[in-house]
Amino acid sequence: MEKLKIDAKTRKTGVKSVLSKVRNEGYIPAVVYGKDIEPTGISVKRSDFRDIYSKHGKAAVIDLNIDDSQVHQTIIKEVQFDLLKNDYLHIDFQKISMDQMIESIVPIRLIGREAAEKSGGLVVYQTDEITIESLPTDMLESIEADISDLDIGDNFKVGDLTIPEGVTVLTDPEEVIAIVTEPEEEEVEETEEDVVDTEETEEDADATDDVENTDQ
Q1: Would the pTM count as exceeding 0.85?
Q2: pLDDT digits over 73-87, tens only?
């Protein structure tokens, strides 16, 4: 596993003006907690965190260097993100022990969708992540679900995933990840205008018949 590091500095907690100042200076408010450590308010540089999080998500062990005086091995436990401002609001770091099992959430990456839909079916997603337990060094950034062999009516469950050694899946193995269904036929609704047009067409046809009969 790649060795990752983020520098952090302590900050005051519970003061909104401080949080605004932290964000305006290019940092993200955060907290670190865990075994043998009191919850501590910190801040990390936005660009440093973005680089790590965009590449590894939550599947990374990070050496958190606080004030150049203490280093804790941590994982990213929670990230709050503001979609409107497109910015990070807050981060939770959890201190871990490298020899103790931890739980983590792993995103599922579907592959083979085009093959599954070749017979005219439609792939419907049911869940896009699973919960696993592993040592920190065995955490997964993602896991693949190969659905290329599915036909209409088939499904792919958590229990069908190929799990690496050292990883235990905590999610129910019967939980469905994806299913291939028949596409619903779109019903053509007859609008009021269509009815009027039809009636007018029929009237025009009757009128034409009357004229032809008169001519005869």
Answers
A1: no
A2: 999 999 999 999 899
